[in-house]
Specification:
single chain, about 650 residues, alpha+beta, six-stranded antiparallel sheet, 19 strands
Length: about 650
């Protein structure tokens, strides 16, 4: 993986030296994504510049240098990612008379564009990618993002300049940059913990959605009027087609087909000219990926896991047991308080668009652990979205049939009474744990009771902070896939509706962002076999019965995994890769949080309602309610908005005496 950046100045005929200096400034901000090499290309007459930072994984020689020109001189490509089927594409192209200088997938991509044209070549690619492609003949710039959204790409206007890059820090490095906070996007961050594409924390800047391409012409640059991105691959289309014409074979046949697809995906993603390993939590998904890797390797796979000292969060012993059974070379690390104090101040820089998924902390530590020994890791992400693994899926499936039998008006009246009860100020000194659980359950029930549809129920369960509109000033939540009824209504099964929604929002905008930025911050490449688009397309043809059975998700993945790992080692209640953030906010992170949630500061900055937020902070510290999710969302924005004030996180004896 690498980092790309560039811009197109609408003034055209820009000084060539200036173009190069600016794009180098942009790519310098991405050095962590590509510490091995730097390159640029510019066209002063057009006002266009492309920049690249390289993390050398394949073809470590100078022949992999980017931006790269096609052999005929028509195309210039700045590419971030990996093309896993490039060997097969290369053989096809060689049969058509193409020759190659080196062994990189980038050179194969360029030859494919020359031979087959842009769209046919694009759909032939199997991999993860985000790239900028200049076509000197058509005078067009294309920005493209992979089907699942593994690789990031931001773009937008800043004054007279169209700017783009792998991360926002590259855009901010352009001298024309002026970015104001998008309060509507902030409201979404406070609700969900992430900002759904195409929105961005900055006004007039956007994320290119997964599976989309944007084509920009000279005329559109001069008029500041770029077209909307267009899809070249649509998960909605895949989901609708798969559920309309489902796989009708036996369980054994479905298992055989899926194993073949996964073995191929894992095999192709194990190709690297540098040391390779895998993340291993001991759960179904990561254990299966590691098992398939070890089955195709003559050497022990290097595996890595993170543990916690807090009860209910530690899965490191399970990972160690799976590693021992499979014979991997396993390394684990337990999170200490000093690790939190070291990592948390760096989060605003690592995630330069605020992300508030608390598991980002162990993810950063896990990537640091792995990067000390390897440069590429495979991950088991996406199993929940593809095979119905999340507990909230089953919760929605239980709740909605029960709720719809109760008249909506009655539910709304009952909810109002429960809301009042949940706000009662109880004496918590005798049984704080029991009181907190009661109040949390009453509050949750009062939120759930008034919902009018299965979609609104699931949207509510996806909202870690259901009071976002009350916390953020002068904001209204814009439309997102989470609130759009159209695609949801076209899928026949509730489970498939929820899986689709997570696959187009939560997965690319939270999970994949979390992993990409954490890994890239230490020059580590992550690969996700379950997101091979051929695997995705097959799983969407599978009926619900092989994804969820006997009130348990991932049935088919479990069936396959049990061929490699004994059931007793992996079958246990699902925990997920969570972090004990509620405890940390009351302990080692309390001083840091208090510094960001001061009432004077909140009033001066003007983004949040100080009294409401301070009340929630007091309730959390006292043990009355667990507001850790919503508070973490706010804290991540606060730390991002003014990183200098949260740059130092030192333990202090005064922390316990801070006013609450």
């Amino acid at each position: 993986m690498c980092g790309i950046a560039g811009f197109w100045d609408s003034r055209c005929d820009v000084d060539g030296v200036e173009l190069e200096q600016v794009v180098l400034r942009m790519t310098a901000a991405l050095r962590h994504r590509g510490p091995d090499d730097e390159g640029l290309w510019s066209d002063a007459r057009t006002g266009l510049a492309l920049g690249h930072r390289r993390l050398a994984i394949l073809d470590l020689s100078a022949e992999g240098h980017q931006p790269m020109h096609s052999a005929d001189g028509r195309y210039v490509l700045a590419f971030n990612g990996e093309i896993y089927n490039f060997h097969a594409l290369r053989r096809r192209l060689e049969e058509r008379g193409h020759s190659f200088r080196g062994h990189s997938d980038t050179e194969v991509m360029l030859a494919a564009f020359c031979e087959w044209g842009f769209l046919p070549a694009l759909v032939s690619l199997v991999g993860m990618f985000a790239f900028a492609l200049w076509d000197s003949r058509a005078r067009t710039l294309r920005l493209v993002r992979d089907r699942a959204g593994e690789k990031p790409l931001y773009y937008g206007w800043s004054g007279d300049v169209f700017i783009f890059g792998s991360e926002l820090k590259a855009l901010r490095a352009h001298p024309a940059w002026h970015g104001g906070v998008n309060r509507d996007a902030l409201a979404l961050l406070v609700r969900y913990g992430y900002i759904p594409a195409p929105l961005c924390i900055y006004e007039n800047i956007y994320k290119l959605p997964p599976g989309y391409a944007l084509t920009l012409t000279e005329a559109q640059v001069r008029t500041h009027n770029p077209p909307l991105p267009e899809p070249y691959w649509s998960l909605q289309t895949i989901a609708e087609a798969g559920t309309a014409h489902p796989f009708d074979g036996a369980d054994a046949e479905a298992s055989e087909r899926l194993v073949a697809l996964l073995l191929r995906a894992v095999s192709q993603q194990m190709v690297a000219d540098v040391p390779l390993g895998a993340f291993l939590s001991g759960g179904i998904d990561s254990s299966l990926v590691v098992a398939l890797m070890q089955a195709q390797s003559r050497r022990p796979i290097k595996t890595f896991s993170i543990g916690f000292h807090q009860d209910g969060f530690d899965e490191a012993p399970f990972a160690k047991a799976v590693a021992r059974h499979l014979g991997t070379d396993h390394t684990e690390m337990y999170v200490q308080d000093e690790d939190l104090r070291r990592v948390v101040p760096r989060l605003p820089s690592i995630y330069d668009e605020p992300l508030a998924d608390a598991s980002q902390i162990p993810t950063v530590l896990l990537c640091q652990l792995a990067a000390a020994k390897v440069k590429v890791v495979l991950s088991g992400d996406a199993g929940d979205e593809l095979f119905g693994g999340y507990n909230r899926y089953r919760r929605t499936q239980r709740l909605w049939p029960a709720l719809r039998r109760i008249p909506e008006n009655f539910r709304k009246r009952l909810a109002r009474h429960l809301k009042v009860l949940s706000s009662v100020d109880l004496n918590l000194t005798s049984a704080p744990g029991a009181a907190r659980r009661v109040l949390n359950r009453l509050g949750n029930l009062s939120d759930v009771l008034p919902v009018s549809s299965d979609r609104s129920l699931y949207q509510l369960l996806m909202s870690s902070n259901r009071e976002a509109s009350d916390w953020v000033r002068e904001a209204s939540e814009p439309p997102t896939p989470l609130g759009t009824p159209g695609p949801w209504e076209k899928l026949p099964e509730l489970l498939h509706k929820m899986m689709w929604l997570d696959s187009v929002s939560y997965l690319p905008d939270d999970i994949l962002v979390k992993v990409d930025r954490a890994a890239m911050s230490v020059g580590l490449e992550t690969r996700i076999p379950l997101l091979d688009h051929r695997v995705i397309e097959f799983t969407w043809s599978l009926p619900v019965s092989v994804k969820q059975r006997r009130n348990q998700g991932k049935w088919l993945l479990r069936r396959i995994l049990h061929q490699y790992v004994p059931r007793a080692l992996v079958e246990r209640p699902k925990k997920g890769f969570a972090a004990p953030i509620a405890q940390w906010l009351c302990g080692p992170l309390r001083a840091w949080a208090e510094s960001l949630l001061g009432e004077t500061r909140l009033s001066q900055e003007g983004f949040f309602e100080p009294k409401k937020l301070r009340q929630r902070w007091r309730e959390h510290l006292s043990g009355k309610r667990d507001w850790s999710a919503g508070l973490w969302h706010v804290l991540m924005f606060q730390a991002w908005f003014d990183p200098q004030k949260s740059a130092v996180l030192e333990p202090t004896e005064a922390a316990a005496e801070l006013a609450v």
